Request: fold
Amino acid sequence: MSVNQTTAANEESAVAAPIAEPVNAMPPEGKVGARPADRTDMVGKALGLLVLLGDEPRGATAADISRRAELPFSTTYRLLGSLTRDGFVDYEPDGRRYHLGLRIFQLGQRVSNHHGFAGTAMPILRRVTERTGEATILSVRDGLHHLTVSKVDGPQTFRVTSDPGHLGSLSTTAVGKALVAFAEDAEREKLLAELPLEALTGKSITDRDAFRAEIEQVRRQGYAVMDEENEAGMRAVAVPLLNDQGHAFASLATAVPVFRLGLDELIAHVPLLQEAAAELAARLPQR
Reply:
C-alpha cells in the first residue's frame, strides 16, 4: 500500500533529521513484542530499501522511497532512520535525501576480496588493458542481469560507464551473452525461454528465435560481441571464465567506442582475453 503523496510530503517536512529508532527495539514492559516472523519481514523490508536506494545515484527522499517500496511512510522513515544510524544509509539534510552509505561500500569490498576479485583479478585486468589500451571488465551473473565486479579503464579520455556494482542486461551486452551461452544446460534453456529481451537501442535483439541463434553462435565461436546493442556508440567483445565442468562463472570483456576500433580489430583481442580468462579461472573461486 502506498502513502498519499501530499501526506508523505507533509510528514517528511515535519522532521529535520532521520529517526534513529532501532528496528529490533524491545517493546515497553508488559506489552507483547513483534513475532519473529514479523521481525524477519522487517529485515526484508530494510534490505529492500537498500536495493531501491542502489538504483538512485542522486539519492531519494523518504516519500519517494515509500512510494516505490509501497510501504507506509512511517515504516519507511523508521527503517531509513535505523539504516542511517548504522551507516548503511547517509542522510543529506539540505535536500532531505537518502543515499547508500559507506558501510555498504565496505561490505561490498569484503565480498570482492572474499571472491578474489580485488587482489587476484585486478592485476590481470590491468595487464589486459595495458595490451589493448582499452577498458577491461569482469562480470558475473546476478539473476537476470550481469553484475560488474571489476573494471580497469583505458588511458583514453573516453570512459566506459559500466563501473563496479553496475547491473546490466544479459541479452544486450557481450559479457551477458557469454554468461548465458556458457551457463549450465538447464539454466541456459531457462534463460533462453524467459529472459526479458530489452530494446535498449535500435540494434538490440528482441526476437527470441534470433536471440537463441545468437547464443548458439557464441557457443560455437567461443566469444560474444556487442555492437551498439546496449549503448549507442559502444561495442565490446567478451569471453567466458569456465569452471571445471565447462560452465561460465564469470565473463571478461574489452569495451571500446565505435570510433576507435572496428569490429574485426576488436575481435582480434579475443586470444588475449581467452588467455587472461584461463588465468583468472585458475585463480578465482569457482562459484
